[in-house]
Design goal:
The chain has helices at about 1-15, 60-65, 120-125, 160-170, 175-185, 190-205, 225-235, 240-245, 270-275, 320-330, 345-350, 360, 370-380, 385-420; strands at about 20, 75, 90-95, 100-105, 135, 160, 250, 265, 280-285, 290-300, 300-310, 340, 370. It is an alpha+beta fold and about 425 residues long. Helix 1 runs antiparallel to helix 14, helix 3 (about 120-125) packs across helix 7 (about 225-235) and helix 5 (about 175-185) crosses helix 6 (about 190-205).
Protein backbone atom coordinates (compact mmCIF):
# COMPACT_ATOMS: atom_id res chain seq x y z
CA UNK A 1 0.00 0.00 0.00
CA UNK A 2 2.77 2.42 0.91
CA UNK A 3 4.45 1.76 -2.45
CA UNK A 4 1.20 2.62 -4.26
CA UNK A 5 0.78 5.83 -2.26
CA UNK A 6 4.40 6.82 -2.98
CA UNK A 7 3.94 6.11 -6.68
CA UNK A 8 0.74 8.18 -6.79
CA UNK A 9 2.45 11.09 -5.03
CA UNK A 10 5.37 10.91 -7.45
CA UNK A 11 3.05 10.95 -10.46
CA UNK A 12 1.19 14.01 -9.15
CA UNK A 13 4.45 15.83 -8.41
CA UNK A 14 5.69 15.14 -11.91
CA UNK A 15 2.43 16.33 -13.43
CA UNK A 16 2.67 19.56 -11.47
CA UNK A 17 6.35 20.30 -12.05
CA UNK A 18 7.05 18.79 -15.47
CA UNK A 19 9.78 16.34 -16.45
CA UNK A 20 13.31 17.17 -17.58
CA UNK A 21 14.05 16.84 -21.25
CA UNK A 22 17.18 14.98 -22.30
CA UNK A 23 20.31 17.14 -22.33
CA UNK A 24 20.73 16.46 -26.06
CA UNK A 25 17.08 17.13 -26.91
CA UNK A 26 17.42 19.36 -29.96
CA UNK A 27 20.72 20.49 -31.46
CA UNK A 28 21.14 24.14 -32.42
CA UNK A 29 20.92 24.97 -36.08
CA UNK A 30 24.13 26.43 -37.47
CA UNK A 31 24.13 25.34 -41.11
CA UNK A 32 22.60 22.99 -43.63
CA UNK A 33 24.69 20.52 -45.61
CA UNK A 34 27.87 21.87 -44.03
CA UNK A 35 27.30 25.43 -45.24
CA UNK A 36 27.93 28.45 -43.01
CA UNK A 37 24.84 30.43 -42.07
CA UNK A 38 25.60 34.12 -42.77
CA UNK A 39 25.13 36.59 -39.93
CA UNK A 40 22.50 39.32 -40.36
CA UNK A 41 24.49 42.44 -41.22
CA UNK A 42 23.60 46.12 -41.34
CA UNK A 43 25.19 48.06 -44.20
CA UNK A 44 27.95 50.22 -42.75
CA UNK A 45 29.77 53.19 -44.28
CA UNK A 46 33.23 52.52 -45.63
CA UNK A 47 35.98 53.78 -43.35
CA UNK A 48 39.73 54.18 -43.64
CA UNK A 49 41.50 51.93 -41.17
CA UNK A 50 44.93 50.40 -40.72
CA UNK A 51 45.42 46.93 -42.23
CA UNK A 52 43.97 44.18 -40.10
CA UNK A 53 46.66 42.17 -38.29
CA UNK A 54 47.09 38.55 -39.30
CA UNK A 55 45.52 36.38 -36.59
CA UNK A 56 47.21 33.26 -35.26
CA UNK A 57 46.49 29.96 -37.04
CA UNK A 58 43.09 28.50 -36.21
CA UNK A 59 43.16 25.72 -33.60
CA UNK A 60 40.11 23.39 -33.88
CA UNK A 61 40.10 22.57 -30.17
CA UNK A 62 39.97 26.27 -29.26
CA UNK A 63 37.16 26.96 -31.73
CA UNK A 64 35.05 24.24 -30.11
CA UNK A 65 35.45 25.51 -26.54
CA UNK A 66 31.94 25.73 -25.12
CA UNK A 67 30.39 23.37 -27.66
CA UNK A 68 30.73 22.20 -31.26
CA UNK A 69 27.95 24.54 -32.42
CA UNK A 70 30.22 27.49 -31.57
CA UNK A 71 32.92 26.38 -34.02
CA UNK A 72 31.56 28.48 -36.88
CA UNK A 73 32.46 31.75 -38.51
CA UNK A 74 28.77 32.32 -39.18
CA UNK A 75 25.54 32.39 -37.20
CA UNK A 76 24.49 29.85 -34.58
CA UNK A 77 21.09 30.15 -32.88
CA UNK A 78 18.72 27.77 -31.07
CA UNK A 79 16.29 25.85 -33.29
CA UNK A 80 13.05 27.70 -33.90
CA UNK A 81 14.33 31.00 -32.48
CA UNK A 82 13.55 34.32 -34.16
CA UNK A 83 16.26 35.85 -36.32
CA UNK A 84 18.64 38.08 -34.35
CA UNK A 85 18.86 41.77 -35.28
CA UNK A 86 21.19 42.84 -38.04
CA UNK A 87 24.26 44.67 -36.70
CA UNK A 88 27.49 46.04 -38.11
CA UNK A 89 29.64 44.05 -35.67
CA UNK A 90 31.76 41.39 -37.36
CA UNK A 91 31.35 38.99 -34.41
CA UNK A 92 29.07 38.86 -31.34
CA UNK A 93 27.73 36.61 -28.61
CA UNK A 94 24.84 36.65 -26.11
CA UNK A 95 25.06 34.53 -22.95
CA UNK A 96 23.43 34.04 -19.55
CA UNK A 97 25.69 35.41 -16.81
CA UNK A 98 24.32 33.00 -14.20
CA UNK A 99 23.91 29.67 -15.98
CA UNK A 100 26.67 30.25 -18.56
CA UNK A 101 24.37 29.20 -21.42
CA UNK A 102 25.28 30.76 -24.77
CA UNK A 103 22.01 31.88 -26.34
CA UNK A 104 23.37 32.71 -29.78
CA UNK A 105 26.43 34.00 -31.55
CA UNK A 106 28.01 35.09 -34.79
CA UNK A 107 31.58 33.85 -35.30
CA UNK A 108 32.08 33.48 -31.53
CA UNK A 109 35.63 32.13 -31.85
CA UNK A 110 36.80 34.39 -34.68
CA UNK A 111 39.80 36.51 -33.74
CA UNK A 112 39.16 40.21 -33.22
CA UNK A 113 40.88 43.26 -31.74
CA UNK A 114 39.61 44.21 -28.27
CA UNK A 115 40.35 47.95 -27.92
CA UNK A 116 39.31 49.14 -24.43
CA UNK A 117 37.11 46.13 -23.68
CA UNK A 118 40.48 44.60 -22.73
CA UNK A 119 40.29 46.72 -19.57
CA UNK A 120 37.80 44.13 -18.30
CA UNK A 121 40.59 41.56 -18.33
CA UNK A 122 42.71 43.95 -16.25
CA UNK A 123 39.82 44.22 -13.79
CA UNK A 124 39.25 40.45 -13.69
CA UNK A 125 42.95 39.98 -12.97
CA UNK A 126 43.77 42.68 -10.42
CA UNK A 127 40.55 44.03 -8.89
CA UNK A 128 40.90 41.92 -5.75
CA UNK A 129 44.69 42.11 -5.54
CA UNK A 130 44.94 45.82 -4.71
CA UNK A 131 43.51 47.51 -1.63
CA UNK A 132 40.90 49.99 -2.95
CA UNK A 133 41.80 52.43 -0.16
CA UNK A 134 45.51 52.42 -1.01
CA UNK A 135 46.77 55.82 -2.16
CA UNK A 136 49.60 55.85 -4.70
CA UNK A 137 51.59 58.40 -6.67
CA UNK A 138 51.38 58.54 -10.45
CA UNK A 139 54.69 58.26 -12.33
CA UNK A 140 55.73 59.50 -15.75
CA UNK A 141 55.67 55.91 -17.05
CA UNK A 142 52.02 55.61 -16.03
CA UNK A 143 51.20 58.51 -18.33
CA UNK A 144 53.12 57.08 -21.30
CA UNK A 145 50.10 56.54 -23.52
CA UNK A 146 49.32 57.14 -27.16
CA UNK A 147 48.73 60.82 -27.93
CA UNK A 148 45.03 61.57 -28.24
CA UNK A 149 43.93 58.32 -26.62
CA UNK A 150 41.43 58.25 -23.77
CA UNK A 151 42.76 59.28 -20.37
CA UNK A 152 41.45 60.24 -16.96
CA UNK A 153 43.86 63.16 -16.67
CA UNK A 154 46.22 61.87 -13.99
CA UNK A 155 49.19 64.06 -13.19
CA UNK A 156 52.79 63.02 -12.61
CA UNK A 157 53.28 63.24 -8.86
CA UNK A 158 49.54 63.23 -8.22
CA UNK A 159 48.22 61.02 -5.44
CA UNK A 160 45.16 58.89 -6.14
CA UNK A 161 43.20 56.23 -4.28
CA UNK A 162 43.05 52.88 -6.05
CA UNK A 163 39.24 53.03 -6.10
CA UNK A 164 39.48 56.35 -7.95
CA UNK A 165 41.74 54.67 -10.52
CA UNK A 166 39.23 51.85 -11.08
CA UNK A 167 36.47 54.38 -11.60
CA UNK A 168 38.68 56.29 -14.02
CA UNK A 169 39.38 53.05 -15.87
CA UNK A 170 35.77 51.89 -16.19
CA UNK A 171 33.93 55.21 -16.53
CA UNK A 172 36.38 57.24 -18.60
CA UNK A 173 38.35 54.35 -20.15
CA UNK A 174 41.54 55.93 -18.84
CA UNK A 175 44.65 54.40 -20.39
CA UNK A 176 46.75 56.24 -17.78
CA UNK A 177 44.70 54.57 -15.03
CA UNK A 178 45.24 51.17 -16.72
CA UNK A 179 49.02 51.59 -16.68
CA UNK A 180 49.02 52.69 -13.05
CA UNK A 181 46.77 49.85 -11.90
CA UNK A 182 48.90 47.28 -13.72
CA UNK A 183 51.99 48.68 -12.02
CA UNK A 184 50.39 48.72 -8.58
CA UNK A 185 49.01 45.21 -8.92
CA UNK A 186 51.97 43.48 -10.51
CA UNK A 187 55.03 45.73 -10.11
CA UNK A 188 55.09 47.03 -13.68
CA UNK A 189 52.79 47.41 -16.67
CA UNK A 190 54.61 44.55 -18.42
CA UNK A 191 54.20 42.27 -15.42
CA UNK A 192 50.55 43.26 -15.25
CA UNK A 193 50.07 42.18 -18.86
CA UNK A 194 51.70 38.83 -18.11
CA UNK A 195 49.27 38.28 -15.24
CA UNK A 196 46.36 39.28 -17.49
CA UNK A 197 47.35 36.59 -20.00
CA UNK A 198 47.64 34.02 -17.22
CA UNK A 199 44.16 34.96 -15.98
CA UNK A 200 42.72 34.73 -19.50
CA UNK A 201 44.12 31.20 -19.75
CA UNK A 202 42.64 30.26 -16.36
CA UNK A 203 39.22 31.54 -17.42
CA UNK A 204 39.36 29.48 -20.62
CA UNK A 205 39.83 32.51 -22.90
CA UNK A 206 42.41 30.70 -25.02
CA UNK A 207 42.14 33.07 -27.99
CA UNK A 208 42.96 36.14 -25.91
CA UNK A 209 46.45 37.59 -25.90
CA UNK A 210 47.05 40.96 -24.25
CA UNK A 211 49.98 43.20 -25.16
CA UNK A 212 48.92 46.38 -23.35
CA UNK A 213 46.99 46.70 -20.07
CA UNK A 214 44.65 49.30 -21.59
CA UNK A 215 43.70 47.67 -24.89
CA UNK A 216 45.65 50.19 -26.95
CA UNK A 217 46.63 48.33 -30.11
CA UNK A 218 49.74 46.21 -29.99
CA UNK A 219 51.26 43.51 -32.20
CA UNK A 220 49.50 40.14 -31.92
CA UNK A 221 46.88 41.46 -29.51
CA UNK A 222 43.66 39.51 -30.03
CA UNK A 223 40.51 38.25 -28.37
CA UNK A 224 37.14 36.81 -29.44
CA UNK A 225 33.49 37.43 -28.65
CA UNK A 226 33.41 34.17 -26.69
CA UNK A 227 36.51 35.06 -24.68
CA UNK A 228 35.11 38.50 -23.85
CA UNK A 229 32.00 36.83 -22.46
CA UNK A 230 34.13 34.62 -20.18
CA UNK A 231 36.03 37.68 -18.97
CA UNK A 232 32.86 39.73 -18.48
CA UNK A 233 31.27 36.90 -16.50
CA UNK A 234 34.24 36.89 -14.12
CA UNK A 235 33.95 40.67 -13.72
CA UNK A 236 30.21 40.71 -13.03
CA UNK A 237 30.66 38.03 -10.38
CA UNK A 238 32.49 40.69 -8.32
CA UNK A 239 30.25 43.03 -6.28
CA UNK A 240 32.79 45.85 -6.41
CA UNK A 241 32.96 45.68 -10.20
CA UNK A 242 29.17 45.76 -10.44
CA UNK A 243 29.11 48.90 -8.30
CA UNK A 244 31.81 50.60 -10.36
CA UNK A 245 30.16 49.64 -13.66
CA UNK A 246 26.89 51.32 -12.64
CA UNK A 247 28.49 54.47 -11.24
CA UNK A 248 27.36 57.46 -13.30
CA UNK A 249 29.80 60.10 -12.01
CA UNK A 250 33.01 60.20 -10.00
CA UNK A 251 35.26 62.93 -8.68
CA UNK A 252 38.95 63.07 -9.48
CA UNK A 253 40.50 64.79 -6.47
CA UNK A 254 42.40 68.07 -6.52
CA UNK A 255 46.19 67.96 -6.20
CA UNK A 256 47.13 70.88 -3.95
CA UNK A 257 50.85 70.09 -4.12
CA UNK A 258 50.66 70.43 -7.92
CA UNK A 259 48.29 73.42 -7.76
CA UNK A 260 45.70 71.49 -9.77
CA UNK A 261 41.99 71.42 -9.06
CA UNK A 262 39.71 68.41 -9.03
CA UNK A 263 37.16 67.57 -11.69
CA UNK A 264 34.29 65.23 -12.42
CA UNK A 265 34.16 62.33 -14.87
CA UNK A 266 31.08 60.58 -16.26
CA UNK A 267 30.37 57.03 -17.32
CA UNK A 268 30.66 56.75 -21.12
CA UNK A 269 28.50 53.62 -21.35
CA UNK A 270 25.10 54.90 -22.49
CA UNK A 271 23.48 51.56 -21.69
CA UNK A 272 23.27 52.44 -17.99
CA UNK A 273 21.27 55.58 -18.73
CA UNK A 274 19.00 54.30 -21.50
CA UNK A 275 18.38 50.58 -21.04
CA UNK A 276 16.03 49.38 -18.27
CA UNK A 277 17.78 46.85 -16.05
CA UNK A 278 21.27 47.74 -17.31
CA UNK A 279 24.14 46.37 -15.22
CA UNK A 280 26.96 48.15 -17.03
CA UNK A 281 29.82 47.01 -19.22
CA UNK A 282 32.61 48.56 -21.27
CA UNK A 283 32.99 50.46 -24.51
CA UNK A 284 36.05 50.41 -26.76
CA UNK A 285 37.39 52.02 -29.91
CA UNK A 286 40.60 52.30 -31.88
CA UNK A 287 41.10 53.01 -35.57
CA UNK A 288 42.30 49.43 -35.98
CA UNK A 289 39.72 47.63 -33.81
CA UNK A 290 36.80 49.92 -34.66
CA UNK A 291 34.05 49.72 -32.03
CA UNK A 292 33.94 46.93 -29.47
CA UNK A 293 31.39 46.58 -26.73
CA UNK A 294 30.43 44.55 -23.65
CA UNK A 295 27.11 45.15 -21.91
CA UNK A 296 24.93 43.34 -19.39
CA UNK A 297 21.38 43.71 -18.14
CA UNK A 298 18.80 41.92 -16.02
CA UNK A 299 15.14 41.27 -16.77
CA UNK A 300 12.61 38.83 -15.34
CA UNK A 301 15.13 37.19 -13.04
CA UNK A 302 17.68 36.67 -15.85
CA UNK A 303 21.07 38.36 -16.32
CA UNK A 304 22.42 38.40 -19.86
CA UNK A 305 25.67 39.67 -21.32
CA UNK A 306 26.43 40.69 -24.90
CA UNK A 307 29.85 41.07 -26.49
CA UNK A 308 30.62 42.43 -29.95
CA UNK A 309 33.74 43.25 -31.94
CA UNK A 310 34.52 45.18 -35.11
CA UNK A 311 31.38 47.31 -35.21
CA UNK A 312 30.78 50.68 -36.85
CA UNK A 313 28.92 53.47 -35.07
CA UNK A 314 26.70 54.18 -38.06
CA UNK A 315 23.86 53.65 -38.62
CA UNK A 316 23.60 52.26 -35.06
CA UNK A 317 26.09 52.90 -32.26
CA UNK A 318 27.87 50.01 -30.61
CA UNK A 319 25.96 50.11 -27.32
CA UNK A 320 22.68 50.26 -29.24
CA UNK A 321 23.65 47.16 -31.20
CA UNK A 322 24.37 45.51 -27.87
CA UNK A 323 20.97 46.60 -26.55
CA UNK A 324 19.19 45.12 -29.57
CA UNK A 325 20.99 41.82 -29.11
CA UNK A 326 20.09 41.82 -25.40
CA UNK A 327 16.43 42.33 -26.33
CA UNK A 328 16.72 39.37 -28.67
CA UNK A 329 18.31 37.24 -25.95
CA UNK A 330 15.62 38.10 -23.41
CA UNK A 331 12.95 37.08 -25.96
CA UNK A 332 14.28 33.48 -26.02
CA UNK A 333 13.10 30.73 -23.65
CA UNK A 334 15.20 30.24 -20.56
CA UNK A 335 16.39 26.84 -21.76
CA UNK A 336 17.54 28.14 -25.17
CA UNK A 337 21.19 27.34 -25.77
CA UNK A 338 23.78 26.70 -28.47
CA UNK A 339 26.66 26.11 -26.07
CA UNK A 340 27.99 27.28 -22.76
CA UNK A 341 30.64 29.42 -21.12
CA UNK A 342 33.23 27.15 -19.54
CA UNK A 343 33.99 27.55 -15.85
CA UNK A 344 37.28 29.07 -14.61
CA UNK A 345 39.95 26.38 -14.48
CA UNK A 346 37.77 23.82 -16.26
CA UNK A 347 39.96 23.46 -19.35
CA UNK A 348 43.08 23.02 -17.22
CA UNK A 349 41.27 20.32 -15.25
CA UNK A 350 40.34 18.55 -18.47
CA UNK A 351 43.94 18.48 -19.61
CA UNK A 352 45.03 17.18 -16.22
CA UNK A 353 42.39 14.41 -16.22
CA UNK A 354 43.57 10.85 -17.03
CA UNK A 355 43.96 10.58 -20.77
CA UNK A 356 43.14 14.28 -21.15
CA UNK A 357 39.48 13.38 -21.59
CA UNK A 358 37.19 16.42 -21.47
CA UNK A 359 34.34 14.23 -20.25
CA UNK A 360 36.33 13.27 -17.18
CA UNK A 361 36.36 16.81 -15.81
CA UNK A 362 33.38 18.54 -17.40
CA UNK A 363 30.48 19.01 -14.99
CA UNK A 364 27.20 17.43 -15.96
CA UNK A 365 24.86 20.15 -17.20
CA UNK A 366 21.56 20.53 -15.35
CA UNK A 367 18.49 19.05 -17.05
CA UNK A 368 16.63 21.38 -19.39
CA UNK A 369 12.96 21.83 -18.52
CA UNK A 370 10.55 22.28 -21.40
CA UNK A 371 6.86 22.87 -21.98
CA UNK A 372 4.23 24.62 -19.78
CA UNK A 373 5.08 22.51 -16.75
CA UNK A 374 8.76 23.32 -17.15
CA UNK A 375 7.92 27.02 -17.37
CA UNK A 376 5.98 26.74 -14.11
CA UNK A 377 8.93 25.01 -12.47
CA UNK A 378 11.32 27.75 -13.57
CA UNK A 379 8.95 30.42 -12.27
CA UNK A 380 8.82 28.65 -8.90
CA UNK A 381 12.62 28.50 -8.87
CA UNK A 382 12.65 32.25 -9.50
CA UNK A 383 10.42 32.79 -6.45
CA UNK A 384 7.18 33.63 -8.29
CA UNK A 385 4.53 33.23 -5.56
CA UNK A 386 1.74 33.47 -8.13
CA UNK A 387 2.80 29.96 -9.15
CA UNK A 388 4.21 28.73 -5.84
CA UNK A 389 1.05 29.38 -3.76
CA UNK A 390 -1.49 27.48 -5.91
CA UNK A 391 1.00 24.68 -6.57
CA UNK A 392 1.69 24.29 -2.85
CA UNK A 393 -2.05 24.28 -2.16
CA UNK A 394 -2.66 21.61 -4.78
CA UNK A 395 0.14 19.44 -3.41
CA UNK A 396 -1.22 19.87 0.14
CA UNK A 397 -4.67 18.74 -1.00
CA UNK A 398 -3.23 15.72 -2.82
CA UNK A 399 -0.99 14.70 0.09
CA UNK A 400 -3.87 15.23 2.56
CA UNK A 401 -6.21 13.12 0.43
CA UNK A 402 -3.68 10.34 0.15
CA UNK A 403 -3.05 10.44 3.91
CA UNK A 404 -6.80 10.23 4.58
CA UNK A 405 -7.09 7.30 2.18
CA UNK A 406 -4.22 5.52 3.87
CA UNK A 407 -5.77 6.13 7.32
CA UNK A 408 -9.13 4.75 6.14
CA UNK A 409 -7.48 1.63 4.76
CA UNK A 410 -5.67 1.11 8.06
CA UNK A 411 -8.97 1.49 9.95
CA UNK A 412 -10.65 -1.14 7.79
CA UNK A 413 -7.68 -3.47 8.28
CA UNK A 414 -7.99 -3.17 12.09
CA UNK A 415 -11.75 -3.89 12.04
CA UNK A 416 -11.23 -6.87 9.76
CA UNK A 417 -8.53 -8.14 12.10
CA UNK A 418 -10.85 -7.94 15.11
CA UNK A 419 -13.54 -9.91 13.24
CA UNK A 420 -11.02 -12.59 12.29
CA UNK A 421 -9.94 -12.93 15.94
Amino acid sequence: MRARVLAATTVVALLVSGAPAPADAAPPVTATAGATVPCPRLPAPKVTRPPRPTPPPSVPEQRAVGGDALATEGLTTPPGSPAPPAVTATTWLVADLDTGAVLGACGPHEYGTPASTQKLLLAATLLNRIDPKQVATATRADLDIERGSSAVGLLVGGRYAVETLWLGLLLQSGNDAANMLARLGAGSARAGVAQMNAEAHRLGALQTHAVTPSGLDGPNQFTSAYDLALIARACFADARFRRYALTERAQIPAQPALKAGGFQIQNENQLIYRYPGALGGKTGFTELARHSYVGAAQRGGRRLVVTLLGAEARPVRGWQQGAQLLDWGFSLPRDASVGRLVEPGELDAERAAPGGSPAAARPTPPPQWRGPAGTALRRMADGDWRVIAPTAGLLALVVGGLAALLAARRGRSRRAGRRRA
